[in-house]
Amino acid sequence: MDLIPHPAFSPMAVEAISVEAVLAHGPGVLRWRVAGGALADVSPAEAVRTDGLWQTTCFELFVKPAEGEGYFEFNFAASGAWAAYSLDGYRSGMVALALDAPTVERLADGVRVSVDLGGLPGGKWLVGLSAVIEEADGTKSYWALAHAEGQPDFHDPACFAIELPAPHTP
Predict the structure, then answer these.
(1) What number of other Cβ atoms are within 10 A of residue 133's Cβ?
(2) Phi/psi of residue 28, each to 5°?
(3) How many CB atoms lie within 10 A of CB 162?
(4) 3-state SS class at 53
(5) Residue 29 in contact with residue 105, Cβ under 8 Å?
(6) 133 vs 104: CA distance, rounded Å
(7) Over the stretch 50-87, which tens digit does the pLDDT of each residue have?
(8) Residue 89 CB contacts under 8 Å (≥ 6 apart), including other chains
(9) Where are the domains of the chain?
């Protein structure tokens, strides 16, 4: 799947971002690939929960159960740091989500993440994939499967562009 840059924040050298995702109501693997351009230098860090990752290069996953207003936000940095939140509505009621630490592996062209989503509610999900990219020269661009009107806002329902069906039960 290809992400598209927000039209108000064009990248300088980054040409494309793609995501390969194997998502399920359980363990999943995602790989974000960045083509072209040098990203801002990222030093490896401990693979610990860290707030504010979206302020520089950060790869994001949003999962919203089709029923209700609540949703979940996952942030993954090339440094290995990560964050996971539960929100009870649009940008409201954000709390840290109890989650086994995902594995975030830095690659030459992006990151590969293994994360277990088995603790999230069942049923049909709406999913958003996005990235905040900071290039070596400081240019920031905001990439998603789809964008809402106005400023970049990955929490907007327009960004939840993938429908993942409920798991089949025997």
Answers:
(1) 25
(2) -140, 160
(3) 17
(4) helix
(5) no
(6) 17
(7) 999 999 999 999 999 999 899 999 999 988 999 999 99
(8) 69, 70
(9) 2-164
At 122, which amino acid appears?
A: G
| DSSP label at residue 54 | G
Amino acid at 55: Q
DSSP state of 139: -
pLDDT tens per residue, range 114-170: 999 999 999 999 999 999 999 989 999 999 999 999 999 999 999 999 999 988 665
Give the Cα separation of 114 and 91 in Å (integer).
Answer: 25
Q: CATH fold of 2-164, please?
A: Immunoglobulin-like (2.60.40)
Q: How many CB atoms lie within 10 A of CB 136?
A: 12
Which distant-in-sequence residues (6+ apart) come within 8 Å of 52 by Cβ?
Answer: none
CB-based contact 57:78 (threshold 8 Å): yes
Residue 165 token pair: 């069906």
